[in-house]
Structure formats: C-alpha cells, structure tokens
Amino acid sequence: MPELPEMETYKTLLGSLIGGQEITNVEIGREKSINVPVERFTARVSNQTIKTITRRAKYLVFQLQDDSYLLLHLMLGGWMFFGKEEDKPDRTIQVKLSFGEQHLYFIGLRLGYLHLLSPEEVKEEFEKLGPEVLQPDFTLDAFQQLMEKRKGTIKTTLINQEVLAGIGNGYSDEILWHAEIRPHKKINELDDQQVTRLYHSIQFILKKGVEQGGYMENALYKGDDKTGGYQFYVYDKEGKECSRCNTPIEKDEISSRKTYFCPSCQR
To answer: pLDDT digit string (tens) for 135-172?
Structure first.
C-alpha cells in the first residue's frame, strides 16, 4: 500500500505535470471507485482546472477551480500513470482524467477510490487523522507527549492513522529496524532513549523515502527516474541478511499484519 513517501512523490510530480491544467474529459471504468453517479461526477469534474495538489496522510487532494475536491486513496495495489494513450500500461483502468492528449490513469482501485467532495466533507474525512510527522511542529517533545498516552505495541501504534498520519506497514518495519527496537515491544516498555531514537528514525526513514521517490514499482510516466528509488532494509526481506549485522530477517504477524525484523539487532 502506498504510504507517505509514495503519496508525497505523486504530489510533487503531478504538481508539475497537471497543476494548473484543465481536465478536458473524464471516463469511469468502475463506478465503485467514485462516490456519486457517473453522469454527475463527469459533469462536475470535466472542464475544471486543477488548482492545487496536496497530501494529507496517505491521501492526495486535488482542489478544483470551483473549490470542490477530488480525494484519492490508493489503498492496497492502487497506482497511477500519466501519459499518452499509446504509452498507457496494459491494465484495467478504473478512472481516466484527460488533459488534452495526455491522460492520468488510475489503476488497481479495487479498494481505493477517487471521491468528489466539498471542502466540508474533506475536512470531515481528515478530522480523526493524527499529526503529519514531517511537519516542523512535530517535534521530539510533541512525539514524547503523544507516546505517553499510548499502551499498545509499538508496531500497531505507528500504523494507527489516528495517532500518526501516513506511516503504514512497510515503513513502520523500516523505522523500527533503524531504531533497533523489536516491533512486538509495548510502548510503555520503551525508555526515554528508545523514544528519542524512534522519533529520529521516523524522520530519517520517511525523509529518505521521500528523497528517493518511495518504493512503488511502476513509474508515473514514461522516462520517470524518480519513482521507486527507495530500497527496503527489512520489509518483505524474510530470510535475507540484515545489512547491519548479517542475521537473517524474520517474519511474524502482529495484529494480522506481516511484520519483518532483525532478531539480533532489534532488541
């Protein structure tokens, strides 16, 4: 599932590709991927200009010229491609937004969606989300105060969007590996040094993910050399050697989530 670095990468790249551009046509291949009747969605979105593209947690928010919004959540397996018809992937397209001869294809939205919402509805969607962990006001002190109120395992806390916005299953494992903390550990078992290390690991791993374009396998456009540059340290690396201590990476399940860690250097 795309997480904060992947959605931040999409935001930056799409801002330069379609920011300020007019949506000349809309095609819906899967009605369940949108939240209003096809005719209404098409009529409301066609001929609108993309004013801004922003990110909140794992969402992308496209602000249209009439101040309505398209809210995108890719969920599991969702991705996008931008380009001409002859360059598009040989995949089923759920939604297609056209910008003249170029098109933005939404692919793999089996669980994901592109919803047309009012400003009030977008605000309501975001009400329960936790803080953005890469914002300047998310300081070590703010993180420490947030952790003081929690009692569950550190893995489930990191991926709880109501606690911290944007971290998912993959990057939570990366963060805990970098911080040398076992994902099974309870938050109230962490000492001050571990909490401090965890905060800095969140910053380091997510910033590195953003800088390297996230881990998405599929390029956003033909010739895209930004998307997908991040290489996981432990996530989905079961049996491979830890790059820090050469111990084989192990896999476990925590709250029904596949979890990868180094049994040696994550104590």
So the answer is: 999 999 999 999 998 989 999 999 999 999 999 999 99
- Indicate if 151 belongs to the active site: no
Q: Which of 11, 55, 58, 155 is catalytic?
A: 58
Residues 64-114 have pLDDT tens digits of 999 999 999 999 999 999 999 999 999 999 999 999 999 999 999 999 999
Query: pLDDT category, 1, cuts 50, 70, 90?
Result: confident
**Confidence (pTM):** 0.96
Identify whether 2 is a catalytic site residue: yes
Residues of the chain with CATH 1.10.8.50: 140-261
**Residues β-bridged to residue 82:** 104, 221
Class in CATH terms, 4-122: alpha beta
Q: Backbone phi, then psi, for 130, in 5-degree steps?
A: -75, -175
* Active-site residue, 3 included: yes
Q: Which of 2, 8, 155, 183 is catalytic?
A: 2
What class is the 140-261 domain?
mainly alpha
- Rg over alpha carbons for the chain, rounded to the nearest Å, is 20
Q: Is 58 assigned a catalytic role?
A: yes
**The one catalytic residue among 30, 208, 257, 258:** 257
Q: Where does 19-107 have alpha helices with state H?
A: 38-45
Close Cβ partners of 86 (under 8 Å, ≥ 6 residues apart) = none
